[in-house]
Amino acid sequence: MNKKVIITLTVLAIIYWCLFDFLRWEQFDTPSFIGGARLLFGLEGGFDFQSRITKPLVLLLPGITELLTTIHPKYIFLLQNIVFFYLCGIFIYKINQIIFKDDKMAYLGMLAYTTCQPYAIFSLFVLSDVSGWFFGISGIYLTLKYFAATNVKLKHLAITGFIVGIGCLAKESAIIGLIFLFSYILLNKFSFKIKVKQFIFSFIGFIIPFAISFLLIEYFYNDSVFKRIMVVYNLNEQVNFELSNLKQIFRIIDMYWFLFIIGIVTVVKILKKQPHNNTLKSILFTGLITGILIPVWPCFTDRILFIAAPVLIIIVVYGINKFKHFGLPLVLTAGFLNIFISFIIYKYNPSGIIVTGIIIFLIVSAIFALILYKEQIIKNLTDKGLLSKK
User: Fold this and answer.
1) Residue 256: which of 179, 180, 308, 325 has the closest Cα?
2) Phi–psi pair at 16, nearest 5 degrees
3) Going by C-beta distance under 8 Å and a sequence separation of 6 or more, which residues neighbour residue 7?
4) What are the tens digits of pLDDT across the range 109-136?
5) Which residues have CB under 8 Å from 144's CB, separation 6+?
6) How far apart are CA 136 and CA 88, in angstroms?
7) In angstroms, rounded to a whole number, what is the distance separating the alpha carbons of residues 319 and 109?
8) Is 92 exposed, middle or buried (0-12, 13-18, 19+ CB in 10 A)?
């Protein structure tokens, strides 16, 4: 593993931990996860609020640790989320490495993903979001890895589906891994018969852990993820379709949306030359399907919408690549603005700071673009012999 990735993640974890500590213990969802972990093991103070018992995977370690050692569950939640914090960054790096076959672009993709504000704030809270993000990322990574082989084995697709299914027992956002896997199968040039087999094995792998957990939770606790969805949907049905939610969409990747636009243009151009590029088609299709499904989901908030970030960031990296040697300074600028603006908003709640940040980022981007344009003109003139090399 690239040491620079580990060092970067460590530095970011320390910064995020210190910067957003004032929010960590005020998070509304925190007590419900602690209560769920205690309920799972019959400990005093256990309760099932917001159907946390439907996310047993993240409750197991905190609950059993308190049972055996009396250590408070919140500390184990934080510890396991620190592990997932590193794993998300590492596997985003691996995904971009597979796609771009370039360590520098893989690093920039990892840096972009981990400097988005939902990741910076919520990954180190007593929540299950970062675990769901990890399992979704894992599904994408394994799909790319297994389909890179000449012969795709059905057992590998079942394993990928199984991991995503396990991940949905931590957070439903892991489902993006299955969406990407299904997209890759659908858009590949396999025969219809092979595609059906691949779909079936992937789905069986996914449904086994999900169904077993569903039946056990329904039997012992009379609860399920579907009941939870309906309850929350009834509470938020009108809110989900308000225009004010556009701000929540922007907050998924903040300043990186501008690089995303450049990236989309680049991807479209590549697909015109490489119409059979299944990876790019699957990325776009996954983003499209996720975008259609997200408004149906009962909670329309930035940390829920962050489910789409892995595929968005891949496209962002294509945009970053257009800035050549200014890629790293541009990502550092965008990342700093994302985190600084989020801190200011949550700490002081000023007005207009997001717009100010956008203006700053566009000015910096324009300066880099103009310098690159000047360098290209000089290079062209030098190549033609119209300008001496000095």
Assistant:
1) 308
2) -65, -40
3) none
4) 999 999 999 999 999 999 999 999 999 9
5) 95, 98, 99, 279
6) 9
7) 11
8) buried
Give CA–CA dist 83/131, Å, rounded: 9
Residue 174: DSSP 8-state:
G
Each residue of 316-334: pLDDT tens digit?
Answer: 999 999 999 999 999 999 9
**The pLDDT of residue 223:** 83
Under DSSP, the state recorded for 239 is G
- C-alpha angle 29/35/36, rounded to 5°? 90
The three-state secondary structure class of 152 is: coil
Q: Calculate the alpha carbon distances from 176 to 142, 173, 180 in Å.
A: 13, 6, 6
CA distances from 273 to 142, 268, 316 (A): 26, 9, 20
Distance CA 161, CA 342 (A): 35
The Cα 237–Cα 296 span in angstroms is: 9
Task: Place 238 in a pLDDT band, splitting at 50, 70 and 90.
Answer: low
Minimal CA–CA distance to 353: which of 261, 244, 246, 247?
A: 247
Output the pLDDT for position 385.
67
Q: Which of 326, 179, 343, 304 is closest to 259 using CA atoms?
A: 326
Map tokens 């119209």 to a residue.
386
Judged on CB neighbours under 10 Å (0-12, 13-18, 19+), 374 is exposed
CA atoms within 13 A on the CB side of 148: 11
How far apart CA 37 and CA 64 sit, in angstroms, is 8
